[in-house]
Amino acid sequence: MSDTLTSGNDSADQTSGTASLPAGSPGRTVAPLDEVDRAIIGELSEDGRMSIRSLADKLHISRTNAYARIERLLAEHVITGFGLRVDARLAGLGTSAYIMVTVEQTSWRAMAAGLRKIPYVDHVALVGGDFDILLLVRTPDNATLRDVVLERLQAIEGVRSTRTWLIFEELDGIGPPWLS
Hints:
Blueprint: H1 35-46, H2 52-59, H3 63-75, E1 95-103, H4 108-116, E2 121-126, E3 133-139, H5 142-153, E4 159-167
Antiparallel strand pairs: 1-3, 1-4, 2-3
């Protein structure tokens, strides 16, 4: 991995290793990630508290380059923040389920507001297919899950039906393949 560009293009972004795409390139608003960018994301995904010095040493790049790349990845919203991963079971949320929700087609905006008010909803995704919304819900027990689904979720205007799949076991993510 290198800190410098090998093309002789002086107008290219010196921190990314790639030139910006020409105006009007379909589907891209920022330069694609290069090997160093992907390595930075991979390392920070494993340990978001890693110091810049450790990151730079591990990737064999300068600290200045590491700072500049992280700042660019943040500015371009490739990195959207740094977070904490919690074992839900050990935090007292031992019952997890995916809930598929079918809604009236014109109700997504109102539905999104209602879903934000339901406790224990960990993730919400608008999806295409046989249902419209996929929820990941983590509750302390089955009785609370029942309350979330039958009392709170189905009380939201626009919900046509729900289908609940209990999660028996989860594996840690292997990470996005583009980081490899």
